[in-house]
Amino acid sequence: MDIISHTLTGIAVGTVCATISNGSWKRKSLIILVGGLGGALPDFDAISLWSKFDTTIGAFLGLEHTGKEIYFGKFWYSHHAALHSIFAPILLMLIAILMHGIKKKSFNRDKVLGFVKSKKFSFLAFFFGFLCHLLEDMPTPASVWGGVNLFYPSSTYIGGFGNIWWWNNYDLVLIIFSVIVLNLLINGIPKQYYHLKMKTSIGIFLIGLSLFLYQVNTRPIDFAYTGHTVDYDKLEEQSKQLQKEILGPQLFNVMTAIDNKIPLNF
C-alpha cells in the first residue's frame, strides 16, 4: 500500500493506544504521532529511489549498486527487506531506550524500566503501527520481492498475494480514516467513563479491521504478478475502475480529486 495509507493506519493504532492511556491531550497527541511514525517508517528504505541517492548517500557509502538496483533487489537494505521486518521496530525501540540512558547518563535497571513504563503506550503505538504497515503490504503483488521479509534475518519473504493493488485503495483509506475520526471523538469523552471509552475504542478498531479485511479479500480482480509486468498500467486502471464501482461515481470523483492534489501515490 501507499505511504499515506500506512501512516493513517499508524495514526489509527495511536488513537486506540491514546484512549487506553487515559492521559492528557498532550500525551495522547504524542502517542498518536508516534503511531503515525511507526506506520510510515518502514518505507524509509525507499530513499534509494531518490534521484540524487547515487551521487550522495551511495557515493558516501561507496555502494557498488545503484539506488534503483538496491530498491528492486534482495539485499538486506532493499525495499521490503530488513526494514519491513518485526526485528526493525524492536531494534529501533531498543535504540530509543539506549539514547535515553545516554542522555540521563544512567542505565540503572529501575530507571530504565521506569522510562519504558512511562512511555509504554508510545512504544505500543509505534510497534503496532509499524507491524500494521508490514501486514498491509502482504496483500499487494509479489513483484520482485515476493512479499516482505517479516522475520529478518530469515531469508523468507511472506505475502505478495495480489489481493489489492499498490494504491488507489480509496475504500480502505476511508475505513482507516473513519476509525481515526471516531476514536478521536471517543477521546473527548470525560475520563470518568474510562472503561466505556476503552472498550468502545477497541471495538471501533476491530470493526474497522474486519471491514478492511473483508474488502481486501473480496476483490473480484487478481492483481498478482511476479518480477516486472507489462500489464502494470492495465492493472492500475482496473484498480481505479473497481474503486469507482465500490464507492460510486460521486465519492470516487471526490477521492480522485484529493489524490490528484497529493504529490505521492495514494
Can you walk me through this structure?
This protein has 266 residues and is mainly alpha-helical. The chain has one domain. Helix content is 62%, strand content 0%. The protein contains 11 helices and no strands. The longest helix has 24 residues, at 194-217. The model has no long low-confidence stretch (mean pLDDT 96).
The amount of beta strand, in percent, is under 5%
Helix content: 55-70%
Structural class: mainly alpha
How many individual helices?
A: 11
**Morphology call:** globular
Element-by-element helix/strand order: HHHHHHHHHHH
Number of separate domains = 1
Distance between the termini: 8 Å
In short:
The chain has 266 residues and is an all-alpha fold. It has helices at residues 3-21, 25-40, 54-61, 67-71, 87-104, 109-118, 120-137, 170-187, 194-217, 232-247, 249-261.
What's the helix and strand layout?
Layout: H1 3-21, H2 25-40, H3 54-61, H4 67-71, H5 87-104, H6 109-118, H7 120-137, H8 170-187, H9 194-217, H10 232-247, H11 249-261
Features:
266 residues; mainly alpha; 11 helices; 62% helix
